[in-house]
Protein backbone atom coordinates (compact mmCIF):
# COMPACT_ATOMS: atom_id res chain seq x y z
CA UNK A 1 0.00 0.00 0.00
CA UNK A 2 1.39 3.42 -1.00
CA UNK A 3 0.01 6.44 0.90
CA UNK A 4 1.10 9.71 -0.73
CA UNK A 5 0.47 11.73 2.47
CA UNK A 6 3.22 9.74 4.24
CA UNK A 7 5.82 11.44 2.05
CA UNK A 8 4.65 15.06 1.61
CA UNK A 9 4.46 16.18 -2.01
CA UNK A 10 2.34 18.32 -4.34
CA UNK A 11 -0.40 15.67 -3.96
CA UNK A 12 -0.97 17.09 -0.46
CA UNK A 13 -1.62 20.54 -1.94
CA UNK A 14 -4.22 19.25 -4.39
CA UNK A 15 -5.91 17.03 -1.76
CA UNK A 16 -6.04 20.02 0.62
CA UNK A 17 -7.81 22.06 -2.07
CA UNK A 18 -10.36 19.24 -2.59
CA UNK A 19 -11.14 19.37 1.12
CA UNK A 20 -11.04 23.12 1.73
CA UNK A 21 -14.56 24.51 2.10
CA UNK A 22 -13.31 27.86 0.77
CA UNK A 23 -12.01 26.26 -2.46
CA UNK A 24 -13.96 23.04 -3.15
CA UNK A 25 -17.15 24.82 -4.31
CA UNK A 26 -15.28 25.98 -7.46
CA UNK A 27 -16.31 23.00 -9.58
CA UNK A 28 -13.76 23.55 -12.29
CA UNK A 29 -10.94 23.68 -9.71
CA UNK A 30 -12.41 20.65 -7.88
CA UNK A 31 -12.44 18.57 -11.08
CA UNK A 32 -8.97 19.83 -12.07
CA UNK A 33 -7.57 18.79 -8.68
CA UNK A 34 -9.03 15.28 -9.10
CA UNK A 35 -7.43 15.21 -12.56
CA UNK A 36 -3.95 16.34 -11.54
CA UNK A 37 -3.89 13.91 -8.61
CA UNK A 38 -4.69 11.25 -11.22
CA UNK A 39 -1.70 12.44 -13.28
CA UNK A 40 0.68 12.27 -10.31
CA UNK A 41 -0.63 8.83 -9.27
CA UNK A 42 -0.17 7.61 -12.87
CA UNK A 43 3.49 8.63 -12.66
CA UNK A 44 4.03 6.82 -9.35
CA UNK A 45 2.21 3.65 -10.50
CA UNK A 46 4.17 3.72 -13.79
CA UNK A 47 7.39 3.15 -11.85
CA UNK A 48 6.14 -0.35 -10.83
CA UNK A 49 5.03 -1.58 -14.28
CA UNK A 50 7.04 -3.80 -16.66
CA UNK A 51 9.31 -2.13 -19.23
CA UNK A 52 11.16 -3.38 -22.30
CA UNK A 53 14.20 -2.16 -24.26
CA UNK A 54 13.39 0.01 -27.28
CA UNK A 55 15.63 1.73 -29.87
CA UNK A 56 14.44 5.18 -30.91
CA UNK A 57 15.70 6.66 -34.17
CA UNK A 58 16.65 10.33 -33.77
CA UNK A 59 17.77 12.71 -36.54
CA UNK A 60 21.35 12.15 -35.34
CA UNK A 61 21.46 8.51 -34.29
CA UNK A 62 19.78 5.79 -32.15
CA UNK A 63 18.59 6.26 -28.56
CA UNK A 64 18.25 3.10 -26.48
CA UNK A 65 15.58 3.41 -23.83
CA UNK A 66 13.03 1.42 -21.80
CA UNK A 67 9.32 1.91 -22.47
CA UNK A 68 6.17 0.44 -20.93
CA UNK A 69 5.77 -3.12 -22.17
CA UNK A 70 2.00 -2.70 -22.35
CA UNK A 71 -0.47 0.11 -21.61
CA UNK A 72 -2.80 -0.62 -18.65
CA UNK A 73 -6.59 -0.74 -18.80
CA UNK A 74 -7.98 2.22 -16.86
CA UNK A 75 -11.33 1.56 -15.16
CA UNK A 76 -13.36 4.03 -13.13
CA UNK A 77 -16.72 4.53 -11.46
CA UNK A 78 -19.10 7.37 -12.35
CA UNK A 79 -19.64 10.06 -11.31
CA UNK A 80 -16.77 11.17 -9.08
CA UNK A 81 -14.27 8.87 -10.78
CA UNK A 82 -14.42 10.65 -14.13
CA UNK A 83 -12.04 13.61 -13.54
CA UNK A 84 -9.65 11.36 -11.57
CA UNK A 85 -9.72 8.88 -14.47
CA UNK A 86 -9.03 11.71 -16.94
CA UNK A 87 -5.76 12.45 -15.13
CA UNK A 88 -4.69 8.80 -15.33
CA UNK A 89 -5.64 8.76 -19.03
CA UNK A 90 -3.69 11.98 -19.71
CA UNK A 91 -0.48 10.14 -18.83
CA UNK A 92 -1.37 6.55 -19.84
CA UNK A 93 -2.56 8.12 -23.05
CA UNK A 94 -2.65 4.95 -25.16
CA UNK A 95 -4.59 2.98 -22.54
CA UNK A 96 -7.90 1.22 -23.11
CA UNK A 97 -10.67 2.30 -20.74
CA UNK A 98 -13.56 0.77 -18.79
CA UNK A 99 -16.43 2.64 -17.19
CA UNK A 100 -19.00 1.60 -14.59
CA UNK A 101 -22.07 3.45 -13.36
CA UNK A 102 -22.55 2.70 -9.69
CA UNK A 103 -24.12 4.60 -6.83
CA UNK A 104 -25.36 4.16 -3.30
CA UNK A 105 -28.98 3.07 -3.50
CA UNK A 106 -30.38 3.97 -0.07
CA UNK A 107 -33.16 1.84 1.43
CA UNK A 108 -36.56 3.50 1.87
CA UNK A 109 -36.84 2.35 5.48
CA UNK A 110 -33.36 3.28 6.78
CA UNK A 111 -31.63 6.33 5.34
CA UNK A 112 -28.21 5.06 6.43
CA UNK A 113 -28.53 1.63 4.81
CA UNK A 114 -27.52 1.35 1.18
CA UNK A 115 -26.71 -1.16 -1.50
CA UNK A 116 -24.27 -0.40 -4.27
CA UNK A 117 -26.33 -0.35 -7.44
CA UNK A 118 -24.40 -0.86 -10.66
CA UNK A 119 -26.47 -0.53 -13.80
CA UNK A 120 -23.81 0.25 -16.40
CA UNK A 121 -20.43 -1.24 -17.25
CA UNK A 122 -18.39 -1.29 -20.45
CA UNK A 123 -14.89 -2.70 -20.76
CA UNK A 124 -12.33 -4.09 -23.20
CA UNK A 125 -10.85 -7.56 -22.62
CA UNK A 126 -8.59 -7.29 -19.52
CA UNK A 127 -7.17 -10.84 -19.53
CA UNK A 128 -3.46 -10.78 -18.66
CA UNK A 129 -3.30 -6.96 -18.63
CA UNK A 130 -2.52 -4.45 -15.90
CA UNK A 131 -5.78 -3.05 -14.53
CA UNK A 132 -5.87 0.33 -12.77
CA UNK A 133 -9.23 0.81 -11.02
CA UNK A 134 -9.82 4.32 -9.70
CA UNK A 135 -12.36 6.02 -7.47
CA UNK A 136 -11.54 9.19 -5.50
CA UNK A 137 -13.32 7.98 -2.35
CA UNK A 138 -12.72 4.68 -0.56
CA UNK A 139 -15.37 4.81 2.19
CA UNK A 140 -16.85 1.34 2.99
CA UNK A 141 -15.00 -0.14 0.00
CA UNK A 142 -18.16 -1.72 -1.36
CA UNK A 143 -18.18 0.23 -4.64
CA UNK A 144 -14.62 -0.77 -5.50
CA UNK A 145 -15.27 -4.37 -4.44
CA UNK A 146 -18.41 -4.58 -6.59
CA UNK A 147 -16.81 -3.06 -9.67
CA UNK A 148 -13.65 -5.16 -9.36
CA UNK A 149 -15.71 -8.36 -9.33
CA UNK A 150 -17.82 -7.08 -12.25
CA UNK A 151 -14.61 -6.41 -14.22
CA UNK A 152 -13.65 -10.10 -13.93
CA UNK A 153 -16.34 -10.82 -16.57
CA UNK A 154 -13.86 -9.32 -19.02
CA UNK A 155 -10.89 -11.53 -18.07
CA UNK A 156 -8.41 -12.05 -15.24
CA UNK A 157 -5.92 -9.13 -15.06
CA UNK A 158 -2.21 -9.90 -14.60
CA UNK A 159 -2.14 -7.33 -11.79
CA UNK A 160 -4.58 -4.79 -10.39
CA UNK A 161 -3.87 -1.39 -8.88
CA UNK A 162 -6.63 0.39 -6.97
CA UNK A 163 -6.23 4.16 -6.77
CA UNK A 164 -8.23 6.30 -4.34
CA UNK A 165 -7.59 9.83 -3.13
CA UNK A 166 -9.22 9.78 0.33
CA UNK A 167 -9.77 6.52 2.22
CA UNK A 168 -11.22 5.53 5.58
CA UNK A 169 -9.46 2.93 7.74
CA UNK A 170 -12.60 0.80 7.44
CA UNK A 171 -12.49 0.98 3.65
CA UNK A 172 -8.79 0.08 3.55
CA UNK A 173 -9.40 -2.95 5.77
CA UNK A 174 -12.39 -4.01 3.63
CA UNK A 175 -10.43 -3.86 0.37
CA UNK A 176 -7.37 -5.56 1.88
CA UNK A 177 -9.60 -8.37 3.13
CA UNK A 178 -11.83 -8.76 0.08
CA UNK A 179 -9.29 -7.91 -2.65
CA UNK A 180 -5.91 -8.94 -1.17
CA UNK A 181 -4.39 -9.31 -4.65
CA UNK A 182 -4.87 -5.61 -5.45
CA UNK A 183 -2.14 -3.01 -4.90
CA UNK A 184 -3.52 0.05 -3.09
CA UNK A 185 -2.52 3.64 -3.93
CA UNK A 186 -4.05 6.22 -1.58
CA UNK A 187 -3.78 10.01 -1.34
CA UNK A 188 -4.54 9.99 2.38
CA UNK A 189 -6.12 7.77 5.05
CA UNK A 190 -8.56 9.75 7.20
CA UNK A 191 -10.00 9.21 10.67
CA UNK A 192 -13.27 7.23 10.32
CA UNK A 193 -16.67 6.84 8.67
CA UNK A 194 -19.63 8.74 10.13
CA UNK A 195 -23.10 7.23 10.58
CA UNK A 196 -23.89 8.02 6.95
CA UNK A 197 -20.76 6.14 5.83
CA UNK A 198 -19.09 9.38 4.78
CA UNK A 199 -15.38 9.81 5.40
CA UNK A 200 -14.41 12.16 8.26
CA UNK A 201 -12.84 14.68 7.85
CA UNK A 202 -13.00 13.74 4.15
CA UNK A 203 -14.28 16.34 1.71
CA UNK A 204 -18.06 15.81 1.54
CA UNK A 205 -19.67 14.23 -1.53
CA UNK A 206 -17.13 14.02 -4.35
CA UNK A 207 -19.66 13.44 -7.12
CA UNK A 208 -21.82 16.37 -6.06
CA UNK A 209 -18.79 18.67 -5.69
CA UNK A 210 -17.58 17.69 -9.15
CA UNK A 211 -20.90 17.78 -11.02
CA UNK A 212 -23.63 19.23 -8.81
CA UNK A 213 -26.33 17.60 -6.70
CA UNK A 214 -28.67 14.80 -7.71
CA UNK A 215 -32.27 14.06 -6.73
O1 LIG B 1 -16.56 3.09 -0.59
P1 LIG B 1 -18.06 3.29 -0.75
O2 LIG B 1 -18.81 3.19 0.54
O3 LIG B 1 -18.63 2.48 -1.86
O4 LIG B 1 -18.24 4.86 -1.14
C1 LIG B 1 -17.46 5.41 -2.18
C2 LIG B 1 -18.36 5.79 -3.33
O5 LIG B 1 -19.40 6.68 -2.87
C3 LIG B 1 -19.47 7.81 -3.74
O6 LIG B 1 -20.29 7.50 -4.82
P2 LIG B 1 -21.82 8.01 -4.87
O7 LIG B 1 -22.70 6.85 -4.61
O8 LIG B 1 -21.95 9.22 -3.98
O9 LIG B 1 -21.97 8.43 -6.40
P3 LIG B 1 -21.34 9.72 -7.09
O10 LIG B 1 -19.86 9.43 -7.26
O11 LIG B 1 -22.08 9.78 -8.36
O12 LIG B 1 -21.59 10.88 -6.15
C4 LIG B 1 -18.08 7.98 -4.26
O13 LIG B 1 -18.08 8.67 -5.50
C5 LIG B 1 -17.57 6.55 -4.39
O14 LIG B 1 -17.88 6.02 -5.64
O1 LIG C 1 -17.02 10.68 2.12
C1 LIG C 1 -17.52 10.18 1.12
C2 LIG C 1 -17.91 8.81 1.09
C3 LIG C 1 -18.45 8.31 -0.05
N1 LIG C 1 -18.61 9.10 -1.12
C4 LIG C 1 -18.23 10.43 -1.11
O2 LIG C 1 -18.36 11.13 -2.11
N2 LIG C 1 -17.69 10.94 0.02
MG1 LIG D 1 -21.64 10.96 -4.37
From TrEMBL:
Enzyme class: transferase
Function: Catalyzes the conversion of uracil and 5-phospho-alpha-D-ribose 1-diphosphate (PRPP) to UMP and diphosphate.
Reactions catalysed, as given in the entry: UMP + diphosphate = 5-phospho-alpha-D-ribose 1-diphosphate + uracil
GO molecular-function term, one example from the UniProt record: uracil phosphoribosyltransferase activity
Stated name of the protein: Uracil phosphoribosyltransferase
Family: Belongs to the UPRTase family.
Record flagged with keyword NAD: no
Keyword annotations of the record: Allosteric enzyme, Glycosyltransferase, GTP-binding, Nucleotide-binding, Transferase
Cofactor(s) named in the record: Mg(2+)
Domain Phosphoribosyltransferase: 9-212
Keyword Transferase: yes
Pathway noted in the entry: Pyrimidine metabolism; UMP biosynthesis via salvage pathway; UMP from uracil: step 1/1
EC number: 2.4.2.9
